[in-house]
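Example record used in the benchmark description.
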Amino acid sequence: MNLHIKSFSWLIMATLSMAACQSSGNQDSPSKSTHPDQEWTGDAIADPIIYEVLVKNPDPDDEWASEKIKKLKAKEFINTLFDAVYEGRATPYNYHTGEVMSIDDIRQLESSEEFDRTLIGKIQFDETWYFDPTSMIMKKDVKSVLLAYEVYDQFEEVVGYKAAFLIHLNE
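Model output (structure tokens):
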């Protein structure tokens, strides 16, 4: 009788697994999310995912760090974000408080002795990642970017990064 219970339990588990697989393939399934472009549907596999990207290599001996960013147009991207703030096309936020920063706050940041746009060494992204396992297509929806600039010690070594401001995108 014990063998029959195990077989029955296995049958129930197999049936539930098959039903779960079939429902995950259904476009109307709650596990599916429509990507913001509305023409493509995939699973939201990270919502949110927050990570940093080194956009300026502080160690010239680290060839791999330089190789990873050699085609990155960081200066242009950073300048575009600043321009968008100054032109009123983007709103800067204080990363720590979440409060809106004024244009005067940004001007004050840019005039401070510790800051220069060329010191921006990291960008932090807040994103949602979507993946369609059938087509093997992955898309990302970037929610915000944070610019962070290098902080140095008395020996002119980078010891960390400080948040400049955060901008929400794609709203």
